Amino acid sequence: GIQVEQSPPDLILQEGANSTLRCNFSDSVNNLQWFHQNPWGQLINLFYIPSGTKQNGRLSATTVATERYSLLYISSSQTTDSGVYFCAVREYSTLTFGKGTMLLVSP
Amino acid sequence: SQTIHQWPATLVQPVGSPLSLECTVEGTSNPNLYWYRQAAGRGLQLLFYSVGIGQISSEVPQNLSASRPQDRQFILSSKKLLLSDSGFYLCACDRGRGNTEAFFGQGTRLTVV
Is the dihedral of CA A83, A84, A87, A90 positive or negative? Predict the structure, then answer.
């Protein structure tokens, strides 16, 4: 099956800093999603982005499907951005998740 | 957009006891439904998915089973829980017509003691 790799595995930032999270996948995909898992475990949808670039406030994402990667940008980070960020790709019927990037934003 | 209801939020069960976790979906019909488990260490593992009533596909052999008695209801069950069944269980759905966005419920944190 398809492999999804996320980097870095862990990231510590000071409040106000910017960051880039990366997701590489091993094969062509039908779509790609970014999620934020909050401290209570809930998965929050950030972007549905099979290709191209999208922005939502301080967050933006870019997927280059032909080169099999996606990037999530977080600007002016806040403590509430802390949590685990997951990339998930759909090959056929199901979503395959990466292992996530654990982000800690300190005040 | 669809809303996913999952309960209970937390559950502590003894080894050998049965399990029933329920997931219901509002706001869409004929969804694809999924059960994922997240063990310690962050990764999410797909357990079961369903494309329609009574249609269940299992991704990994295990002590669990799933059923879909109604279009928007998905149930995860076990006859006898093992310690290794502990984890965070998440139900998800998408609209089931092509390449669509998936949404997750709030999850059930299961501890088997």
Answer: negative
Omega before B18 cis (within 30°)? no
Q: Do A94 and B59 touch (CB under 8 A)?
A: yes
B42 has a chain A CB within 8 A of its CB:
yes
What the block records as the tokens of A103 is: 């982000």
Instruction: Please state, in angstroms and rounded to a whole number, the distance separating the CA atoms of residues A95 and B53.
Output: 20
The dihedral of CA B50, A47, A32, A103: what is its sign? negative
Could you give the CA distance from residue A6 to residue B1 in angstroms, rounded to a whole number? 29
Q: Which of B3, B4, B7, B44 to mutate to test the interface with A (most CBs of A within 10 A)?
A: B44
pLDDT in tens, chain A (107 residues): 889 999 999 999 999 999 999 999 999 888 899 999 998 899 999 999 999 999 999 999 999 999 999 999 999 999 999 999 999 998 777 889 999 999 999 99
- In contact, A1 and A95? CB cutoff 8 Å: no
Question: What is the maximum alpha-carbon separation in chain B?
Answer: 41
Map tokens 């706001």 to a residue. Answer: B27
